[in-house]
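Many introductory courses stop at the sequence. We go one step further.
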Amino acid sequence: MEKSRWIGKSLLFVKNCYMRASPKLKTFYKFARVELPPPHREDFPEIVEHAKRLFCGTLRGNWRNLTIMQAWLNTLVASEVLFWFFIGECLGKRNFVGYKV
């Protein structure tokens, strides 16, 4: 008897979660289709040109002209990329310490 009440309440909980989350998920999917697709072949020349400008600007010292806010944001983005790399490494090797050799 107690088990059926627990199952009924959990199903009601799942239904309520679905009803509350579905409008937000629809909005997310709508924007994700536009904003998060992988790059197309036509985008690569622009990406290469931007990377060249960034590299040359770094060598010329353009980083000295950044505001504190821009430098802080660049630091945050770089650390996010680094952390995702390390998390991907841990997930890929299925272990936190070293590789199984």
